[in-house]
Each structure stands twice: as C-alpha cells, then as structure tokens.
Batch of 2 targets.
Target 1
Amino acid sequence: MKITFLGHAGFLIEGSKKIAIDPFLTGNPAAKNNPKDIKADLILVSHGHGDHLGDTIEIAKQSKGTVVSVNELAIFCSNKGANSHGMHIGGSHVFDGIKIKLTPAWHGSGFGDECPLEYLGTPCGFVFNLDGKTIYHSGDTGLFGDMELIGRLNKIDLAMLPIGDNYTMGPEDALEAVKMLKSGLVIPMHYNTWPLLKQDPLKFKTEVESNTGSKVTVIAPGESLEF
Ligand code: NI
Ligand code: MN
C-alpha cells in the first residue's frame, strides 16, 4: 500500500481501499496536497479541532466516502452533508472488510474559535487493518499507560504518533509510547507545522531506533512511502 503524509496529523493510505485520516490541508502551512485531489472511501477523524477535521467534509462529499469518528463528531459531519458513521471508544466495526476500532486519546474536541465552543465528544485514535497490515493512528494525545494494552492486543505494523509537544506528547513521551506499542514502524506527526511545534524528527528516530526494536520513517508533507 501507499502511504502519503498530508502534513500535520494527516495521512492518505491507498491499498485495496483508500483511507484518509485527519485531512487538514486548507490553512495548513506545511501541506503540499490539494484537497480537491484527495479521494477516500473512509475518512477517519480523531477529534473536532480544525487542524484535524480540516477538509473532511469536502473530501467526503467529493469522494462519496464515509466519515468515521466518535458519535458526536459523526453527527456534526452528517449535519454538514457528509455520509458518516458514529462509533465510540472501545467499539469496532467492519467497513467492507476493514475492521476499525476506536481507542482513547487524552485531549480536547471543541470545534471553532468563539466561545462557547461546540463540543464534539471525546477525542479518539484508531486501530485498523488494511490488506493484512495493522495500523494505529493515536490522534492527538498525551502519553497513557493503556498503550501497553493496545500494543498487547494488536500486532501493530505501523504507528503514527505525535511528537510536537505543547498540545500532545513530545518526543520523550512518544519514545515511551513506542516501547509500549511495540510497532514495527513509527511515523512521527504533529510537529513543525507551526513554530510552537518545532521538533527534530531525526533526533526522535535516533532515540527510538537505539532504545527499542522499532524503526522510524520520517516523511515530509506531500511525500509517500510504499509499505
Ligand atoms: Ni487537537
Ligand atoms: Mn492537533
């Protein structure tokens, strides 16, 4: 399968099905892709913050794809005219052969920038299987001990983890996450989009590869890797 980093926490995974995750392109200073070019059968959205919900509605409409998220955010997307499927933490569902399970994430999920914010349920992460590979996208989260459980219950081939600090785990906590998840490959995300999130992903790669059995691949926004 082909994995394209859309920048920030966004990915497009193209195998037997196309899965977009947190496609934030419009207004993303790091993004290289045009949202009009993104086609996805499933659009997984981790929470209601603008840097994750992003271009979800447009991409869902133009692709006739389905938004998958926690129930509150799924209802929000339905009201904006997108097909959506609501789930909740700990629940799984099989979408045309792809099993997706929602995992916890320690974060917020208020939509908008005017008070009162519209609250769109709890944030989440995703574990899913595509073409024989198990992929975990943590969403925005701090480090939590139940990642050990996620790593024990799933043989994770690829984990996308934030390293940007301030709003999420920083690199030191992300290293601890990798130790618990034991994923084959790690792609760092949610860094260097803005100066506040400045991190050195190659330093993270060195730390992870010298302290765990996992590999780290750093990909620039707009670039892809075969997996
Ligand atoms: Ni967020
Ligand atoms: Mn974020």
Target 2
Amino acid sequence: MKKNMNISIKSKEDIDKMKKAGKLAADVLEMITPFVKPGISTGELDSICFKYITEEQKAIPGNVGYNGFEKTICSSLNNVICHGIPDNQKIIKNGDILNIDVTVIKDGWYGDTSKMFLVGKCQPHNERLVKITQECLYKAIEIIKPGIQLGDIGNAIQKHAEKNYYSVVEEYCGHGIGSVYHEEPQILHYGTPRTGIELKEGMCFTVEPMINQGSKHTKVLSDGWTVETKDGRNSAQWEHTLAVTSSGVEVLTKRSEESL
Ligand code: MF3
Ligand code: CO
Ligand code: CO
C-alpha cells in the first residue's frame, strides 16, 4: 500500500483482500433478507448477523467495539437516518422501511455496506424514497473512474435527490476504507462539479448517501448514536465499498441481485 498525501493507494493484492471482506459483508445482507419480516426485532436481526459472521464466515464484525458501539449491525428504521442501535424491544412492522448497515473484517481488511428493506407492504411515498436513494448511489458509481473529482460524485447524488424533491444529509458522509475502517478522504454526498480531490486508480472508499423526504437537518438522540431527521420524516440510505480501477470502478460489496 502506497500513501500519497493522506489517501492510501491500494495494490492489486490489497484490493483482492478487500474483495474477500466486501463479499462477506454483501453475503450478510443477502443472508439476513428472508428474516426481515413483520414481527422480528432489530435485536434478533443483529444476533443472527453476529452469529453468521463469527461462526460461518470466521470473520470479525467491524462495528462491535467501534467507538463504543456494541452491536454488529446498525438498524435504522423510518425517520432514523443512520446508526440505529439494534434492540430486542424494537419490533419491525408492516410498512416500515429499514436500513441494515454491516461491516466485516477479514484478514485485517474491511468491507462496509448497507441496504434498505421494505417491510411487508409499504406506502408508495416510502417505496419511491428507497428507490431514488438507490439510484443516487448508482449514479455516483456510474461516473467513478480515474480523473473525475470528489465534487463530481457529490454533485451526481445531490442533483438526482433534489430533482426528486428530496434533501441530502450533510453531517455524515462516505469514507476511505481499507485496513482502517474510516480513513481519508471524506466522500460528501453533495458538491460542485470539477472541484475536490481527483480520483486515482487504487483508491478505495464508500459511497453511502442518506436522503431525506423532508429537510436535510439531523439530530442525535441521547443514546449518543441514533441519528434522526429533525422534522420526523423518513430517510433512506444505501452503501457500497468501491475500488477505483484503471478504467472505472469495481463494487467490492456487490450482491447477486445487482447488475453492476
Ligand atoms: N457502517 C457505518 C458507516 O457506513 C458506520 C457505523 S459505526 C457504528 O460508516 F459504530 F455505528 F457501527
Ligand atoms: Co461506511
Ligand atoms: Co456502513
């Protein structure tokens, strides 16, 4: 691994190891999908993921112990933007929208990914929020290649969100990732084209837009983790871990349902 300024450039061998971690993280989201049904608690979903990562994958759940977080997944329901804490008392119900965000460490390398779940039958406005937020992530992925700049990524996301009358959360962002969970650079989900750091082959980072139905403003609950929308309206998020290649980008946390 070479370092240029503070942004590490990963070698082919490094990225091969990140692919393994990324695949395991993606597999956790695929494994948990059939369990995400009305009546299960977010605490139970967390226990299933913990067991799967430690016992089946023989890997490490990257969130456990991170800055004092105690759980394997973040489970963010409806008006929760991110960092929801799994809880055996919190039962998901028909019509909820849920984000599950998981990080797996394998052989010292990290994979970080999240997806939205529509629980049972959801209202069209919630289905639309979830779909447009995924499109925001995909629009960013589509343009990533060496030579583009971080502002181009943020702008692609912001333009698509705002065109659909949504707002982009500004306080939380994507991040460089590798043998460290969160490293430089920060990947803002809003921005101005042709500004910011230029992408180079071997950079690895997440893109994880948080998109709100109402205003962009956030608040953190007294548990010190849970981030909610200030106005109480719903929020969605999708996340992938990416590696910049010579001609484009590789999605290290791709699930089999995705054609990326
Ligand atoms: N996975 C989150 C991210 O995308 C970070 C979660 S930190 C935790 O960067 F401690 F809340 F798990
Ligand atoms: Co992340
Ligand atoms: Co994450």
